Fold this sequence. Notes:
Structural class: alpha+beta
Amino acid sequence: xxxxxxxxxxxxxxxxxxxxxxxxxxxxxxxxxxxxxxxxxxxxxxxxxxxxxxxxxxxxxxxxxxxxxxxxxxxxxxxxxxxxxxxxxxxxxxxxxxxxxxxxxxxxxxxxxxxxxxxxxxxxxxxxxxxxxxxxxxxxxxxxxxxxxxxxxxxxxxxxxxxxxxxxxxxxxxxxxxxxxxx
Length: 183
């Protein structure tokens, strides 16, 4: 009489589990690195999009448009806050009834766009700035190139540098040295 066995033997099951474990040990660290790189790239690209939007709005409205670091809606950041990782505002002065600008600084409701990255990277302005001001000609107000460094943390991984030129054009480049934990 012939018996028809179906299923796996214990040995076959154990070999499969060992192979799956080895593959997971290789894949999980690589996935974590890819996830961190994706976060840095996405956050830098969100800021580039906001800067381009502010530039186009300044030209279109013929007035200053600011991009300011700040994560809490309606609360302007402290002057010393150079951390952009929590989010930023694109805003402009409101126009009054006589079509003049209010010139009262930032107030709640002046926002054109509010952006908060989902993964909260470290986005530092090395010279301590917390605002870019686009003039009606599309240039950045202070007339100097500025950088924002994007890292997940200062553990030596490859980071991103977002540079805003004098003409107001932002660009992103990879950099091996900006996420170095040593000052």
